[in-house]
Amino acid sequence: MTNLKKGFALLAVAALVLLAACAPKTEAAKPAAPTEIRHITMGTAGVGGSNYPTGIAMSALWNANIPGVKAVAIATGGSPHNIDLLRTKDADVAVCRSLEAYRAMNGIEPYKEKMTWLRSLTGGLFTDVFQVVALKSSGIKNVSDFKGKRIVVGPVGSGGEVDAKETLAAYGLTYADMNVSFVEYAQGIDMMKDGLADGGILGLALGASGMQELLLDGKVTLIPITDEALANLRKKNEFLIRRNIPANTYPNQTEPVPTVGTPPDIIIVRDDMPEDLVYQMTKTLYTNLPAIHAVSALLTQFTKDLVLPEDQMLIPYHPGAKKYFVEMGWLKK
């Protein structure tokens, strides 16, 4: 190639480069803007109850519907543990009992500081009940009969373990009056099935699969909580109410069983979580209710009907959640 031809060739290439640089870019030609990944850790409870699969379902919905969110649910020791994980920022969101969050927010025992940064991302999920069980062969007919027996309760500091301690106190009992095992609920259920425990106070959600399994062979019965015990419980906790475990909730349970209920569980976050992110997370849950209801029959309670007025909530709504609820007409501004 002559020098002249080389010169023309170079000029042609230069012209093409210049034209390409000056040509308007179509939307398709624009490089995709980098998306910042927001990692979200969700605290739930032990794997034997309903909270763990609930967290998995909610995390999957957030991942599928909110760009840039990578959420994962982890098994935990329950509400008190979840609150501490949020405090240390080792979790960003969690399932929690309203009453436990209320205690933490107000510095009520066992919480030594007021965790005023707690906020609710949802209305109520479902209401919890105390579930007291015993082997029929143990002769236990009443919680008072737990004295001298082998009893299982939840891990130390879990919401269910707190319930167990308070329930026993309502009957004038303490852990010193019996042989207590502080175990995960799945292990406690196995201990009862194997005859290694006589009874238990289990912090599992109503209808939990672990409870279904425990009552399947007809060797275990549900123990009622008396009106007198409820009155004693309410001296310490005014928010507790009379509830019944409906007949046929579990195998071999043909009659309703009087027990005690707590305010609805909620999803909690810190107040410093971005408002727009919480708005998107809240909206995603309420626009995909069938996916959450499919986790268990218990979760069918999770609807707008449990989006309570602000003065009835034990924990304030996060501004992002409130924005969505007001937008939907479920809350007043």
Q: Describe it for me?
A:
This protein has helices at about 5-20, 50-65, 80-85, 100-105, 160-170, 185-195, 210-215, 225-235, 275-285, 290-295, 320-325; strands at about 40-45, 70-75, 95, 120, 130-135, 150-155, 180, 200, 220, 240-245, 255-260, 265-270. Residues about 1-35 have low confidence and may be disordered. Helices cover about 35% and strands about 15% of the residues. It has about 325 residues and is an alpha/beta fold. α5 (about 160-170) packs across α8.
Features:
single chain, 333 residues, alpha/beta, D-Maltodextrin-Binding Protein, domain 2, 2 domains, five-stranded mixed β-sheet, 11 helices
List the helices and strands and how they pair.
Elements: H1 3-22, E1 38-43, H2 51-65, E2 69-74, H3 79-87, E3 93-97, H4 98-105, E4 118-120, E5 131-135, E6 150-153, H5 159-170, E7 179-182, H6 185-193, E8 199-202, H7 209-214, E9 220-222, H8 227-236, E10 241-245, E11 257-261, E12 265-270, H9 275-286, H10 289-293, H11 319-327
Parallel strand pairs: 1-2, 1-3, 6-7, 6-8
Antiparallel strand pairs: 3-12, 4-12, 5-8, 5-9, 10-11
Helix pairs in contact: 2-9, 5-8, 9-11
